[in-house]
Design goal:
The complex is a heterodimer of chains A (117) and B (107). Chain A has 117 residues and is mainly β. Chain A has strands at 4-7, 10-13, 19-25, 32-38, 44-51, 57-58, 67-73, 76-81, 90-97, 107-108, 112-116. Helices cover 0% and strands 51% of the residues of chain A. The chains are: A mainly beta (117), B mainly beta (107). The interface between A and B is medium-sized, with 24 and 22 residues.
Chain lengths: 117, 107
């Protein structure tokens, strides 16, 4: 159980275009979802936290107008990178958790590798 | 915010050796997890361990919440154990990651 999927697994786009990444919890309801980005040989950096039906909470330094997050249902969150530039190229990973029962374990998707040319 | 420190940053082992990875937190956490990131980037859940001790095969973990640290033990290491090990935790809704321990197990 506790499977999280991401789509697409990789994407190449031209500078100035927008890209949408989907994150789904397949076998549980995720009241909270998280978006991380990871540069090569570095750790995961939290970008934002989203709760179903609420606006996302962004970490300091993350542009909310550039990285649009929508958590429309208990099983789906989307990250849209708007007007992408080469410096946005990175590995984006989502995670989800259902803290019912007081357990805060997070489950991660397989990640999306974004390359902006 | 909470700071997460992992040690050692890099570790090279001969196959069959044992190792201990450490994770220190700057403040109390109510959730703590250990992950293994495989070569394709997928994070594999190893342990959810805000306190106490757990074991799963050759891996075990111990968290001493009052002293704000956690340990991951790998026994009889295998080449397939190679990769990056992360600990992560937080005091509320957030989960913050440490920098990771990069493990290479030689055959």
């Amino acid at each position: 159980g506790a499977v999280v999927s991401q789509h697409p697994s990789w994407v190449i786009c031209k500078s100035g275009t927008s890209v949408k990444i989907e994150c789904r919890s397949l076998d549980f309801q995720a009241t909270t979802m998280f978006w991380y980005r990871q540069f090569p040989k570095q750790s995961l950096m939290l970008m934002a936290t989203s709760n179903e039906g609420s606006k996302a909470t962004y970490e300091q330094g993350v542009e909310k107008d550039k990285f649009l997050i929508n958590h429309a249902s208990l099983t789906l969150s989307t990250l849209t990178v708007t007007s992408a530039h080469p410096e946005d190229s990175s590995f984006y990973i989502c995670s989800a958790r259902d803290p019912s029962g007081g357990v805060y374990e997070q489950y991660f998707g397989p990640g999306t590798r974004l390359t902006v040319t | 915010g909470i700071q997460v420190e992992q040690s050692p940053p890099d570790l090279i082992l001969q196959e069959g050796a044992n190792s201990t990875l450490r994770c220190n937190f700057s403040d109390s956490v109510n959730n703590l997890q250990w992950f293994h990131q495989n070569p394709w980037g997928q994070l594999i859940n190893l342990f959810y361990i805000p306190s106490g001790t757990k074991q799963n095969g050759r891996l075990s973990a111990t968290t001493v919440a009052t002293e704000r640290y956690s340990l991951l033990y790998i026994s009889s290491s295998q080449t397939t154990d190679s990769g990056v090990y992360f600990c992560a935790g937080g005091g509320g809704f957030k989960t913050i990651f440490g920098a990771g321990t990069r493990l290479f197990v030689k055959a």
